[in-house]
Amino acid sequence: MWLGMVLAVTGMTFFVETARTQSASAPVTAEQDHANMMQQLGIEALRPGPSGDESAPNHANYDESKANPYPKIPDPLMMENGEKVTTPTMWWHERRPQLLEEFSEYVYGKVPKDVPAVRWTVTAVDHENLGFRPVIAKDLIGEVDNAADPAISVKIHMTLVTPANAKGPVPVLMMFGPAGFPNPHEPSAEEFARINAAWKKMATAEDPTLAQVFSDHPAWEPFHATPFRFPQLNADGGFPNTWQLIADGWGFVLIDPASVQADNGEGLRRGIIGLVNKGQPRKPDDWGALRAWAWGAGRGLDYLETDPAVDAKHVGIEGVSRYGKAALVTMAFDQRFAMVLVGSSGKGGATLLRRNFGEAVESLTGGEYYWMAGNFLKYGASKAKFGSMNPGDIPVDSNELIALCAPRLTFISYGSPAKGDSKWLDHEGSFKATMDANRVFTFLGAKGLTMDGKPYTGPMPPINQGILDGQLAWRQHDGGHTDAPNMKYFIAWADRWIGHSATE
Ligand code: GCU
Q: What was the pLDDT predicted at 231?
């Protein structure tokens, strides 16, 4: 009887726990989550995004004469009320905060005020060689306090790699992508022999008849050293980005965006966004994945500020494609980042939202909606309680996002459409935005787009011709959908501005 009651009580507790856990993380599809946001916003229908396939009847526009349906782009140097920004002080105290607020409210979403703290732990330190240079690699986990919803766990994974022979703190490029040890050392030949002997002993203990098999094949060993393999070279035949950085006396960080927030709509009720919302749907001005990834990078920088191997005043952020967007968002919002390499970022990144060329606002309000704030869906709405809206209604544009990076070192990078950095990304629109953002760089006293010692006034330069003399830089390389062929230009350019040189 007594036992029965305890069981019943325990059973009830268990039931309640399960129910709560399930409600916190009830799985939804991206379609259901998207529909939920449309409903919150009173949107009945969205315009469909164009197809990326040029032979499809509904393919994206690639006709430059139709690419600028909203030719008047918002002016970063004009307040919302039409007042001109006349001094740098006015930029820093009024216009910049206004732009940050608008990008948060309407485009990328707001970082909630109550995001829980992150506790960093160095989980392992490895001594490796990268490009024949000794490095120290630290694997790190940033565990987010999940007391608010124990069913959701967020562990940010990053790896910090610095040259072992550095004489002092080094500049570091943080790169969005899978984290992990870049080049773990293998056991030595003698250690392999011990591992193999122990393994054979274990196998024989499990199945004594294997003794005969091993003695029939005395030369066979279960574990071998990996044969020497040349590293995977960059698209331009150069050494991997990580090697180049180390060779130049930089460190780098690999930070895994998926460990912060999933790259899909169904994940919005998990990850850091889901944790803060306790597994519930986003509100219209909540952050999307791009802002969450940028937040994660900021937490990574919090750690770097505590690590004596790192020159935390010279930490850059890098990413390609969707992570190129994330890198630009990171740089725009978090002024502690000293530089950015924005690779092939397209819509939601460097190219103008108002342009109709390749990827459209309607792509970002459709399948890619989870990168953005819910509110962004409004600009793709064809039928809603507020009528309809279009890209021309977005209060801000990418020229202003790039301007938010000023006067810090900002390198906008693309590849060549002929080599696979597709037209979808709208290189021309990105260049136009960069040119306009340039006004803010020079307004703040920085050296803007400059080529051969002269301010650059356009047009978009040919492939391989960089505009690399100023604090705002542009280069389209002749490779594909990567920033690797631009890495050596980035390093040389950043070195010049931060006064760093490779130390042997
Ligand atoms: C798609 C998407 C882009 C994105 C790219 C990527 O092409 O439309 O916005 O940048 O994927 O990240 O690979």
A: 80
- Structural domain including 201 reads 187-225
Determine the 3-state secondary structure of 490 from DSSP.
Answer: helix
Cα 449 to ligand 1 centre (Å): 27
Which pLDDT value is given to residue 234? 82
pLDDT of residue 25: 56
- Tell whether 147 is covered by a domain: no
What CA dihedral angle connects 240, 292, 434 and 443, to 10 degrees?
-120
The secondary structure element, H or E, covering residue 392 is none
Total count of domains within the chain? 2
List, for the chain, all residue ranges whose pLDDT scores fall below the cut of 70. Answer: 1-26, 503-504
Which residues 6+ apart lie within 8 Å of 467 measured at CB?
449, 450, 451, 456, 461, 473, 474, 475
One domain, residues 324 and 217 = no
Q: Is 346 in the pocket of ligand 1 (CB under 6 A)?
A: yes
Q: Give the nearest ligand 1 atom to 323 CA.
A: 12
Q: What is the pLDDT of residue 4?
A: 37
Amino acid letter, residue 161: V
Q: So what's the pLDDT on residue 227?
A: 79
Tokens of 53: 């396939």
* Same-domain pairing of 103 and 213: no
Q: Which of 359, 361, 421 to mutate to test the pocket of ligand 1 (most atoms within 8 A of CB)?
A: 359
CB of 355 within 6 A of ligand 1: the answer is no
Indicate whether 239 belongs to any domain.
no
pLDDT at 26: 67
Pairwise CA distance, residues 348 & 376, whole Å = 11
**Helix %, strand %, coil % of the chain (to 5):** 40, 20, 45
- Distance CA(203)–CA(487), nearest Å, equals 49
- Single residue among 225, 246, 272 that ends a domain in this structure: 225
Return the pLDDT at 2. Answer: 36
Residues 6+ apart with CB under 8 A from 61: 50, 67, 356, 357, 358
Residues 353 and 493 in one domain: yes
**Statement to judge: residues 199 and 332 lie in one domain:** no
